[in-house]
Amino acid sequence: MNKVESTIQKMKLNPDYEKYFFQNASKYQNLYVWLEPLYKESYFEAQEDMRIYLSFLETVSLQNKEEERSDTTKILLDIVNAFFEFRQEHKSYDYYTDYSMVKILFNLPKENITLEHIDMIHMLLKDSGGSSLLNSEIEKVVLPVLVDNGMNEYILSLLRVIFDYQVQDKGKSYQEREPLLEKYWLNSLLEKHSKSIVEMIDIAGLEILISTVKQVIDEDEAAFNNVWIASIEEHPQNSFPERYDNQLISFTRDLLEYLDADKVKSFIENFLDEEHPIFKRLAFHTINNKYDELKKLFWNWFDAYKDTINTTFKHELYKLLQDNNGKFSEDEFDKLIAWIESLDYSKYYDDVSAEQLRIVTAYKKKEWLWSIKTSSTKAQELYEKYNAVNSSKLEHPGFDMWTSGTEWVGYQSPIEEKDVFCNKTVDEIIQEIKTFDPSKIEKERFTRDSDLIEGLANDLADCVKENPNKYSLEIEKFIELDWIYKYHLIYGLTNAWKEKKKFEWGKVFDFILNILDEDFFASQEQYILWMKGQIASLVEYGTKNDENAFDKKYLPEAKKILFLLLKHKEEEQIEYDNDMHTYVLNSINGKALHALINYTLRYGRLNSSHSVKWEDDVKDFFTKQLDENTEYSKSIFTILGDYLPNLSFLDKEWVDSNFNRIFPTGNDDLWEIAISGYFLYSSTVYTDIYEQFKQHGHIEKALNFKFKSDRTKRKVIQHICIMYNSSKDDETILDVIESKDQESILELIRFMWQIDRKNITEEARTKIFSLWQKIYDVFREDNSSGAQAIFSTLSKWFVFIDAIDEEILPYLKLTAKYTEKNHNSYFIVEELERLVQNSPKNVGTLYIEMLTNDIFPTYKQEQIENTIESMYKLGEKNSAKMICNLYRKRGIYFLNEISKQYEI
């Protein structure tokens, strides 16, 4: 028996000796000789308490890192994996063991680390509630290994861990997200490694970040607001940079700044169409950062949406104008000046005299003119004109709010201690509201009496949100208050219900039915108009989720309220019919229609065993609307398109028999609205609905139709691609190609790349190459700019190639020839580095095709060097030499050392 075996036997007989051994083993060299014998004797088996072994195992892993032995690596990996499996099964938690096992894993050669290990780290952090020694190891151990070894896919997986979060403090008037990593370590990690991560994650990382931002918004519409995130750029006004929301947006901003303009262009275009202002703010910041390349996106947006500009994205728009005005044309200055001159502030200052309004308007307009006047004589002259009316110094132009220390400039609440106010009885609160005199309150600059009244009403809403049942039980007492307070009362109840706080719905419905009289519907008072929409929203949130719905016994009252709102619908002149979805979400009539649908779906789920799941009066309401053609019809057909799959659930026979009335091909305006409603906001492709669209000619019409929003056509193309991918429609996609419509084909190429590139099966390759051949056949004799753009964008499809044979080489040569038409050569460079091992000759052919057509890629230089060096090693010396010479002839010399090395 050798020394190792005798020592192990002694340890098994004497626990104190065993403890002494493991406590002191880390002091010795060559511990690998002990690892396998101990492992075979069942030491290191995964269990609740493994601390006694951790120092030994860590030291073995460090010694193995210095001089790697494959058998040692294998045993250590087995131990770590067994521990992870144990943790997953038993959900036990020991912060020190977690921390140590991850360190051991990341001391192993990189080939032993898998994406599943990143998932396990995610699990460990979640189980610890984010409070763990492991927080530090993400920064100190995990990230450096992944970054130093260029493990991009792993970085992407870890990105989801880094920006995971938990919602806390839901009892407050806003939701607060806490990062899964402790806030200190998240800040530290991003401060030290943000640049390295940004350089590795590319577009795939941007997609992850955008998905996370959208998830946050789905949970909390108030997230990423101007109060917490004063500016997208680094700025002293960002008082809370360590907050999760701020970190997420700042990192997304850094990535957008780093990526090439061509890579982010489609994202920025989509951002400009998003409803939540944070996307427009990111878009304007990025356009500002890459103005020369992205300016067309801005001016297209400005031409279409200048009338929608508001304070939620003012700062980034202002800064874009201020930073780039030296690049504007006279025509662009004229557009901006015409817009500034059209600004009407009367609706925001309806309680001031005409003279006061003139003075305020002058101040506001000269603020916008300040952003462009240095490069425009017209703007300078107008600035002087308005400065003569109001000579006040511009304070912090581009910001509507400014913090100085802890004081906010902006709205001023008249309540010093809101908790004291909220804790009063309902009678006391009502009395305080009745006796409130804003004229006796000291005001901030530009604060009006009406602002203080609004502040008090907001305070009431916050109180109601915190304790809704208190107010619902005595809600009838609020009947005597002004409409501003009744509106905020219902607003507070709505927010409370969204946070799953209970109250007495019967009394609330009685209160609402009591106020919905003829005088109410005849009034045009602002808060009465808003009240209609808020009542509808309350019903909607009370029915849209079965887990948080009011008792079904109140459904008749809810329907009565909704039909009263629908009977007394608002007269409307819809201006934004190219974005009807957003309009209907925010309009009074639209809110009532959304509420009716959600009420009906709640009723349908309660009667799910019936073939027809909605009530006759609701069915009759929508059936009657199918034959109308009014302004109101625009809202109706938007709703019908938006909720088509839900309507099929309620009454499939009604949808099938009325399909061509819901999508009336004889009325282009309503057809476009309904089609856009369906395609833009349907996240699922429903085969039966798609087949009806195709059968009745709607797909064909959509492919040839000039939609107000290009996004609709893109979504139609995406549905066609998905149906092609699932082998349910192999024909229509060929019609798209044969149409020669450039934008449609570009969308087809981009979308097929997006959905298949992460799961490249043989079936996917076959389908892609079939389309590639079709595109090649249709456009190979076409030298137009549009055809060149299509071949350029096909660079993305190089990812689907596993070897370059003679059959596909002609397709690839055309793409290589035109790849820089849309600046896509970096796709080819990246993939040729991969393909050179299997196809060195044809890789050389494609490089020469680019170079002889005056395309000299230099990004990424390392990948090009690797490719050319591989060509030399694989016997393609002549092609490699020709490539080096062509670069040299162009005055680009980074391949010189490689050519010298192999041409001696």
Automatic annotation (TrEMBL):
The protein, known as: Uncharacterized protein
